[in-house]
Amino acid sequence: MDIGWIGLGDMGSVIVPRLLDAGHRVTGWNRTEAKAEPLLERGMAWGTSPRDVAAASEIVFSIVTDGAAVRAVALGDDGIVAGLAPDAVYLDMSTIDPDVSREVASVFAGNGLVMVDAPISGSPITVGQGSASTMVGGDRAAYERVEPVLYDIGSRVSYIGPSGTAAQMKVAINLTLIVEMVAFCESVALAEKGGVDRAVAVDAMLKSVVASPVMGYRGPFILDMPETPLADVTLQQKDMVLALEVARRQGSAAPLGAAANELLNACRGLGIDHRDFVTVFDVYRMMGGLS
Ligand SMILES: NC(=O)c1ccc[n+]([C@@H]2O[C@H](COP(=O)([O-])OP(=O)(O)OC[C@H]3O[C@@H](n4cnc5c(N)ncnc54)[C@H](OP(=O)(O)O)[C@@H]3O)[C@@H](O)[C@H]2O)c1
User: Fold this and answer.
1) Which of these CATH numbers, 3.40.50.720, 3.40.1190.20, 2.30.30.30, 2.60.40.1930, describes 2-162?
2) Fold of the 169-287 domain
3) How far apart are CA 135 and CA 116, in angstroms?
């Protein structure tokens, strides 16, 4: 298929090669053009604007930082909305506020166009392994048209419900992801303070019943922090703040999220927010007087 891709950051730059490998023609755009270089060498075509990309595509994806970025690439004279064909589908994969997603979808609907929220759960690692999961909220017929392409991105695909519900689900999932990794750090610090070697504690946690896929690939970061984060404290805290804001707005209790958010605040206070958010362990390390 002719696929358009907006946003070639950490996630977009690993998803596009999967689509090229699956035999699709991909036209891409990124605000910072230089990031497209490796993909242009792999056969991706360059579009001069989100509008230009949309005009060349049957399916258009965006994966950019936040709601403001989605508005910037989707709406306006140079936005996706200005180029999308009436029989094409626009999917936004960014992790954003469900209300912003619904608002953008309604602008598209007002122009006789289809936009669905299609957030992705995973990381550059799980995308590379083909095991990332995508969820879709919005027009069901549009979902059925794009479903095969979503399977080219990752092996788990779900239709969640009406517009905004997949964005809502993604916010809920990331709340668990962050709380779970903070709890992992707290447990390793607890074990270590009581005399267990740190590496032995990580290994025992990952062999125990509490181990999860995200712990499996992120837990070892406690021992060996990667130079390039999968998601740094700033990016991950955006999701926790989103969860807390959505919870406040709808009257949901989220005390565990609030506690985890304090650990992310501490990372920023210590000036370690550029590291993968598992650097939360460094906060526990300091609080526990560990080396
Ligand atoms: N990293 C993960 O593990 C992960 C997993 C699942 C979902 N997500 C979500 O996916 C989205 C992207 O994440 P990422 O890790 O790829 O982030 P990233 O590496 O920081 O990339 C962000 C992308 O957004 C673009 N962007 C930001 N503001 C923009 C604006 N105003 N106009 C146009 N483009 C703009 C950036 O363009 P420039 O290159 O010009 O800066 C870049 O392409 C986020 O919503 C994130 O929460 C991330």
Assistant:
1) 3.40.50.720
2) N-(1-d-carboxylethyl)-l-norvaline Dehydrogenase; domain 2 (1.10.1040)
3) 10
* Ligand 1 atom having least distance to the Cα of 68: 31
In the chain, domain spans = 2-162, 169-287
* Residues lower than pLDDT 70 in the chain: none
pLDDT > 70 in the chain, percent: 100
Which stretches within the chain are classed as H helix?
12-21, 37-41, 50-55, 67-74, 80-83, 98-110, 124-129, 140-153, 165-193, 198-207, 213-218, 233-250, 255-269, 280-287
Residue 36 is given by DSSP the state G
Residue type (1 letter), 229 = P
User: Which residue is it, tokens 């083909």?
Assistant: 130
| Helices 165-193 and 233-250, axial angle in degrees (round to 10) | 120
The token duo for 219 is 């837990």
Within 10 A of 30 (CB to CB), how many other CB atoms are there? 20
CA of 21 to the centre of ligand 1 (A): 22
The ligand 1 atom at the shortest distance from the C-alpha of residue 235 is 47
Say what the pTM is: 0.94
Any idea what DSSP says for residue 60?
A: E
Measured by CA distance, the residue closest to atom 39 of ligand 1 is 32
